Amino acid sequence: MATRITKSLFLTSLECRTRAWLDLRAAPAPASEEELFRMEQGREIGERARGLFPEGRLVSNNDQDTAEGLTEKLLSDSSTKTLFEAAFVDAPFIARPDILTRHGKAWHILEVKSSFADSGSVDDYVDDLAYTAMVAARAGLKANQYSLVLLSRSYRFGDSPDLLFKTLDVTKQVRERAKEFDSLAGALAKDLLSTATPTAALVSSCRQCPYFDSQCLGKGLEHTVLELPKLSASMLKRLSDEGIVDLARLPAGLELSERQERVRDAALSGNAVFGSGLRQVLDGIPWPCHYLDFETVATVRPLYKGHACHQQVLTQFSIHHRDSIESECRHSEYLADPKKDCEKELAEELIRALGKKGSVIVYSGFEKTRIQALQARFPTLSKQLQAILDRIVDLLPVIRDHVYHPDFRGSFSIKAVLPALVPALSYKGLAIASGDTAIARFARMARGEVTGAAAAATRGALLKYCALDTMAMVRLHEVLWRRAAAKRRVAGR
Ligand code: SF4
User: Fold this and answer.
1) Which listed CATH number (3.40.50.2300, 3.30.420.10, 1.10.3720.10, 3.90.1580.10) goes with 278-492?
2) Which CATH class, in words, describes the domain spanning 7-193?
3) How far apart are CA 402 and CA 66, in angstroms?
4) Which of 62, 129, 137, 276 has the fewest Cβ atoms surrounding its Cβ within 10 A?
5) Closest ligand 1 atom, residue 19 Cα
6) Per-10-residue mean pLDDT for the chain, 493 residues long?
7) How much is the pTM?
8) Residues with Cβ within 6 A of ligand 1?
9) DSSP character at residue 482
10) Alpha carbon nearest to ligand 1 atom 2, residue
11) What is the CA(204)–ligand 1 centre distance, in A?
């Protein structure tokens, strides 16, 4: 078991001490392809930020003990102006400030992030920096300024590197928060290093916790209260206080919404529910139907001329066309040339492929948002794109309002709904099986890291993945139609 507490463990423990305790003892999981791509981009931004301090010296790439010794030596050398990845320890806490630069008789600590300076995450980053400030102070470093180095929204592809960043002085906030952390640190370290697991209590982050089903509150339970949609904070608190996690133990008389009741009843009975209103909604969808799905790319540093950091660019669409529920499907698709910004060409192809008649079937609001972005970017196409927007039918609210299967486990995302309603259709075995992997692979082609035969294989895998997304909607529509038809027959008897 690791005995050193890192920033990430400390911050996790503020949300749930049990999770941090389990993290400390867990074998490191191999990073997924998309996580590796994200980390790579973070490292790249870190390296560019170092470029702002050409006199800086890098401590990193050493194990923690060597790095601590080297940091001590460099700090005592008066010629050291700036250090990158310095190492501080106040057992059991360790910290590695991104940048440390002399500021008068003390030091200025800077933390680099790949987010925009005006993003809503600045408070979280203050916590990151406050932890580092606490450990550095406990280790004896005198710091008098704390800043975040964030991305500038006005930076564009090809601009000079120094325009990429915006530095935010957060000294006051960091000092206040570091003081709070300092007062919590002793008890927190005691809990995390104890042999006894801290008592777990239901919190909203249990939803994303990898230990929920395997080692914590959801273990051994068929269905849990977290499957209830739109569970309010007050109801979650009440259930947490009463120690209720099992859906079967919901107290009688608890006020549930209609949707929550449907979820509870379906989960506890083990039977899927298809509401009576489904038939009317499906009957109201005009034919032909065009099932549409988009893929995009977005990277921290822009890929194309004139683009900003994190700019989302449409790269691909798949459309399955069908004249009626019984007829054969036709397929149209488009995949951009990664070497250039093809959004306008994609928009024109989309208008052509969707024609002027019938419903445009999507799953979630994503396609609508992207078409609106195309309208804003290409005003000359705005009218034709509006005509497409006016034909959109979103299957997600149709399912959310009328259908529930116990295997949805509280989620209405296509990845949860599909295996429950269309088990024969699966993404397993595909070379690209998620939107995040599609982004990473396309970005690598755009950056020239994947070329030749490998690029051709990637293009094939991207087309296959997107086509399966729209075929999934075709099959989903069929299942819903059959269920509604059964109700039609029962009603007509
Ligand atoms: S399931 Fe919830 S209580 Fe358990 S470790 Fe995860 S976040 Fe903490």
Assistant:
1) 3.30.420.10
2) alpha beta
3) 61
4) 276
5) 5
6) 89 96 92 94 95 93 82 93 96 96 94 92 93 98 97 95 94 98 97 96 94 96 95 94 95 88 92 90 96 98 96 98 96 98 98 98 98 98 98 97 93 93 91 95 96 97 97 96 75 50
7) 0.92
8) 16, 18-19, 22, 200, 203, 205-206, 209, 211-212, 216-217
9) H
10) 206
11) 9
